[in-house]
Amino acid sequence: MSGVRSSTLLVLVFCTAEILSMAGFALVPSLLPRLSHDWSLSATAAGWLGGVYFLGYILAVPLLVSLTDRVDARRIHLACAALNGLALTGFALLADGFVAALGWWWLAGLALAGTYMPGLKALTDRLPAAAQSRGTAFYTATFGVGVGLSYLWIELAQRHLAWPVLFALAAACAALSVLLIWFAVAPAASAPSLRSHATHWRLVLGDRRILAFCGAYFGHNWELFGFRAWLVACLVWSHDRSPDSWTSMPGVVAAVATFLAVPASILGNEGAHRWGRGRWLRTVMPLSCMLALVVAGLSDRPGHVLVPLLLVYAASMNLDSAALTAGLVSETAGDRRGTALALYSAVGFAGGCIGPLAFGIALDTFGRVDPAGWAAGFASLAFGVGLGRWAIGRNSETTSSAKR
């Protein structure tokens, strides 16, 4: 019983630190309409600003996460949580235009590479094997809690505070996450594998199951982060076109949409346990793709129609999230799990970089104030998750895996 209590407390600590470190996650998506106006950004430039966060992530994650196979992941998590605070402070004080904003927001994305998956590695390294799958599900679902709270507090605060102050407050939360892990989680002795770093990468790159999970995560993040980057802007456009109480507070809608990721992600992992991971993923990913196309077709409807549909879609796109990550963790040997997570994160968040950009290009191509532009943007999300479904289906060993 004491082991159960200690495992629960450990999960709670890491989940709380994750929420604190992600307080600034929604700053650029939430402020994108204001920043676009202030800096006269095109939709493509705004898409770059939304996606550069994930570019920083994917450039750093192969090194930072694979390093956790050789050193305690807690050390990496602490250093990058501090770097996150520095990047947010730099944005608050020095971002006076598009180029400077790109640099600081890129650095914040790089910091996420050293907190999100290294945090998961630090957690699972300290959990007994029987608790790892559900611990992973709760940790990955907490990502949605962090994003949702980020949207919510920014929506409520931006009406009263200048945007640099919002970045400074998020930097303070990042500092609190450093203190929490520093004092609540004891260092662990590193137990490096006898295999070389290059051998780890060869084994991971040669494992078709791992590659299938990576490809599916690419499609998932293309859809998810493309949706999150443009959701507030879509609701602002909808409200300007046809004022509606449902779209009058877009940040609150974005927060609710993100909070729905939490039960959807946890239930998705339980569904994978019950019906088999492969069968579950082959079902829920096409469902999400279909709903993206429905939203594309109805994106010009008034808020009382559009918002409930967006919320259903937001929940559906998270039914695969924890099932994918828990599947990768459970099917990878512990001594190379960090390297597998590094590849998984790099490939997956490449989708997170491309998704917002593809949406922005679609808007510029078909018209930012035209319903056809927003329909094309949501169709680009369907294309992304469709790629993920194709990737997971390429590996019969993964898609026919037993219940886990």
TrEMBL record:
<dbReference type="InterPro" id="IPR020846">
    <property type="entry name" value="MFS_dom"/>
</dbReference>
<protein>
    <submittedName>
        <fullName>D-galactonate transporter</fullName>
    </submittedName>
</protein>
<keyword id="KW-0472">Membrane</keyword>
<keyword id="KW-0812">Transmembrane</keyword>
<feature type="transmembrane region" description="Helical">
    <location>
        <begin position="78"/>
        <end position="98"/>
    </location>
</feature>
<feature type="domain" description="Major facilitator superfamily (MFS) profile">
    <location>
        <begin position="10"/>
        <end position="404"/>
    </location>
</feature>
<feature type="transmembrane region" description="Helical">
    <location>
        <begin position="305"/>
        <end position="329"/>
    </location>
</feature>
<feature type="transmembrane region" description="Helical">
    <location>
        <begin position="136"/>
        <end position="154"/>
    </location>
</feature>
<dbReference type="GO" id="GO:0005886">
    <property type="term" value="C:plasma membrane"/>
</dbReference>
<feature type="transmembrane region" description="Helical">
    <location>
        <begin position="251"/>
        <end position="268"/>
    </location>
</feature>
<feature type="transmembrane region" description="Helical">
    <location>
        <begin position="374"/>
        <end position="392"/>
    </location>
</feature>
<feature type="transmembrane region" description="Helical">
    <location>
        <begin position="7"/>
        <end position="28"/>
    </location>
</feature>
<dbReference type="InterPro" id="IPR036259">
    <property type="entry name" value="MFS_trans_sf"/>
</dbReference>
<feature type="transmembrane region" description="Helical">
    <location>
        <begin position="48"/>
        <end position="66"/>
    </location>
</feature>
<feature type="transmembrane region" description="Helical">
    <location>
        <begin position="280"/>
        <end position="299"/>
    </location>
</feature>
<dbReference type="Pfam" id="PF07690">
    <property type="entry name" value="MFS_1"/>
</dbReference>
<feature type="transmembrane region" description="Helical">
    <location>
        <begin position="341"/>
        <end position="362"/>
    </location>
</feature>
<dbReference type="GO" id="GO:0022857">
    <property type="term" value="F:transmembrane transporter activity"/>
</dbReference>
<feature type="transmembrane region" description="Helical">
    <location>
        <begin position="166"/>
        <end position="189"/>
    </location>
</feature>
<keyword id="KW-1133">Transmembrane helix</keyword>
<dbReference type="InterPro" id="IPR011701">
    <property type="entry name" value="MFS"/>
</dbReference>
